[in-house]
């Protein structure tokens, strides 16, 4: 509604409008063949002004409105508009539910209850992979290196970029289904991101295995060289929110090699690339290496039992000969009666100090499978565990994946909680270090104790669903 500041000016404005309307109406009537009546002359301005002055001033404000005002008849009430909005949301929910396919969902956003203010452990600091952290300002510096990697691939293979774009376009729908929630990127933006990030990952994998110089990079390249920045990139690439579906990487590598449908090679390259993150420094035996090679070539990313992404491949390699429990069913997984984030429900075993007082002895077990703990004749044999500045983020992301993915055992979570139970103090850490069980590069034993005590604070876990439960029961029999 237009505010009236000068009554006289408003009156003249209305008179002008009335004159214009009257004249236009007279012209139309004169042009009509059926019009035989004379045109009534408009009132004089003085008469118009007198009539307007006789009207209450408030009534003028009702008539005068801004051009943007809506004069449509039958305007809906706010309540009816609210009901329409609710119905639209329900209709959108119906469409989402009908189109939603959770069969391929495997790349999750870390639940807020697990973050506990420690976002740095889950959010990439150097390079983004996939849509969750795509385009963030602090990660854009890596983008031009991604484009360099794509340029090197096309130059080496003498291929056109359209080949890659068209091929990944065929997998777009399946790739989108791997991510949680709606991805707002357009089709072209999503495909471009998959090609660019995927090719960057593959160049890092191949460079670590074959040598970056063989791929055409300078020995002093800031990214494509085995130097300090590589460790930070490795840690980012193992994060749950920073994953690319394995079948996308398989297709991109297959295009480079002229075998678009090949599978298994990316998993093998990934294991070699992420090997420095393995939480043990025990050397692999020859038989272990053979089993690892055989395991890496049997991945089928399109099956429920195959590798899903790099984090899943790495986790499977850690547990390659580990316990194989049946997948947990939904009701069992989320039963409030048996699965609560409560330290009393996570107490697998007493701490080192208490077990020692009860007569339990500790010895290092010689195996690279850090989770493979044994107890026999009063001796608890625990494999060597190497702890460095990336161990916390690694374990947190592995635990987050086990918490989110239904068809996934909780073996890493069980191991971490077991170690958390053993370690209550710096003295516990010191004794395990004395036994050769824990080796760490942190500042003090207190930092190691704090690391384990904080890893599973909000984790939903049931001791009855742990592969270490039988062992814990045996060890607890000797405790007071």
UniProtKB/TrEMBL annotation:
<dbReference type="InterPro" id="IPR004158">
    <property type="entry name" value="DUF247_pln"/>
</dbReference>
<dbReference type="Pfam" id="PF03140">
    <property type="entry name" value="DUF247"/>
</dbReference>
<feature type="region of interest" description="Disordered">
    <location>
        <begin position="29"/>
        <end position="55"/>
    </location>
</feature>
<protein>
    <submittedName>
        <fullName>Uncharacterized protein</fullName>
    </submittedName>
</protein>
<feature type="compositionally biased region" description="Low complexity">
    <location>
        <begin position="41"/>
        <end position="55"/>
    </location>
</feature>
